[in-house]
Amino acid sequence: MFIGIHHVALVVSDPEAAMRYYGAVAGLQRLPDSTARLVSPGHEGLLACGSPPFDQYLLAGRNGFLEILSPRGTAIAPNGEGNPINRPGIRHFCVQNNDCSILEAAVLSNGGSLIAPPLDLGTGNQYAYARDPEGNIIEIEGLPYTPASEATWLGHVAIVTRNMDAAIAFYAALFGTVLKSRGQFGPGPQFDRMGGLTDARIEGAWLPAGNMQLELWQFHTPQYPLERGPNALLDPGYSHICLECDQLDQDLARLIDLGGQVISGIMENDAARSVFARDPEGNIIELLELLTGHSSLSIASLASPDVCERIEAGR
Fold it and tell me: Which pTM was predicted?
């Protein structure tokens, strides 16, 4: 059974700058390097012989983790305009707070930028897409109905798909969950402005994923041009999402039955077992099972793993 989204992984050139940025914007705290290695036993097994050595860091939030990967001696050009919001793949994660202006100020004072200033799309919430110092996208969102005392949390991880029906079917069956909502958005000036697009017509869907949500988007217009093959683990930008589970073998078998493809063997250390696979569109998924005695590395050990559920219940 899947417990939730343990972490999303991001490949950057300057990990220290990235950790400062995400510490300030998302309230994430760096954990000891030994913890990062314990949580990810499968990385070495996925990299081919001759791949560059890399450093890895793990940052903890109130209800989820961010993994930073950085190839040593390899310069990564900023994504900038080469990383638009409608590009298929793992596209962003969302940071939420009662007050979006707090998040906006943190972005701008820590080397980030905004595609557009925060705006209301008709829900009463404030939304903006931000970029970190290397151009990677996050969403910042202000939910004014939440208590001001509620510290910043992670709301969702977003994947852009070319086939919404297939993506929903795969992830709903993989998580064993039911679609929460689905809708059509745009065209309209607000949606264009927020994403930096023209004549955007979008479909969105949201699936519960334990400690947060999985958000799926399909851009019917404008569509990003078809690209080369699937990304590799250390390609710049979002590398993979890691799903924590308590029965790795059974969950891996279900992923395969649903059309996923395994791309590594099962790797194990003293703390965890993990394996890498791809979803039907090629996005990398890591499955992680923590072993007995290492519950401190789990989602359940975080300060508020149920924060998304509590916020939704109190809306």
Answer: 0.95
Could you give the CA distance from residue 225 to residue 71 in angstroms, rounded to a whole number?
Answer: 27
Residue 37: other Cβ atoms inside 10 A: 15
Neighbours of 250 (CB within 10 A): 11
Distance CA 243, CA 274 (A): 10
Cβ atoms 122, 179 nearer than 8 A: no
Q: What value does the CA radius of gyration of the chain take, rounded to a whole number of Å?
A: 18
Residue 77 contacts residue 132 (beta carbons within 8 Å):
no
pLDDT digits (tens, 9 = 90+) for 1-56: 899 999 999 999 999 999 999 999 999 999 999 898 889 887 766 776 556 788 99
Rounded CA-CA distance 33/57 in Å is 6
Q: Which residues pair with 157 in a beta bridge?
A: 93, 214
| Sign of the Cα pseudo-torsion (107, 39, 76, 219, in order) | negative
CA distances, 139 to each of 102, 149, 169, 250 (Å) = 13, 21, 25, 33
Q: What whole-number distance in Å separates Cα of residue 162 and Cα of residue 166?
A: 9
Residue 149, number of CB atoms within 10 A of its CB: 6
Element (H, E) at 192: helix 189-195
Report d(CA 26, CA 29) in Å as an integer: 9
